[in-house]
Fold this sequence. Notes:
Blueprint: H1 8-39, H2 43-70, E1 80-82, H3 83-94, E2 99-103, E3 109-111, H4 112-127, E4 133-140, E5 147-153, H5 180-191, E6 196-201, E7 204-209
Parallel strand pairs: 2-4
Antiparallel strand pairs: 1-3, 4-5, 5-7, 6-7
Amino acid sequence: MSGTSLGSLDLAALLCSRVCHDLISPAGAIVNGLEVLEESKDEETKSFALDLIRKSAQTASARLQFCRIAFGAAGSAGAEIDTGDAEKVARGFIEDDKTKLAWNLPRVLMAKNRVKLVLNLLVIGTQAIPRGGNLTLDPVGEGPTVGFKITATGTNARVPPAQAMFNGGGAGHAIDAHTIQPYYAGLLAAECGLTVSIAAEGDAIVVAAR
């Protein structure tokens, strides 16, 4: 893998920062909801606070489950992961009122790093449609060497700045808590013998690992 080299301690620290970034918003909302609940005597306000706490707790749980597989160990070295489980956490992390996911991978046991790669590519796919839209995940080939293609469509779809980080960045592209995720996706792809690409194809943005 070309580009900037990152030590294992820095990689671990920056991935932890990325996970904290995903969790800080729902955790903060839970704290705010609890404060409102404690201070309010109005039943309508209390109901609002409870609803905020409930939704934020669900969001935090979904993000934790996703991060456990996408960034964490999720089993021993060489382990396989059920793609059905991966689909479940991906939907919980990605889907909302604005964004929908079409998951076209068959349900099989797949090498852990390939599943982690899929989830990381999906994150990059969401970055291509900041105003929401549709993500479609398709296999490229089959068997143990399968690759992946994610097609992102939506209003103002664009190639995100992640592209430069797939190969370790370079001049003007520092690896930090904001860019560690696509950098990590590039590492996963290299480990799987695949190369990541991202490009506009008509009105869609296609993220692929082949």
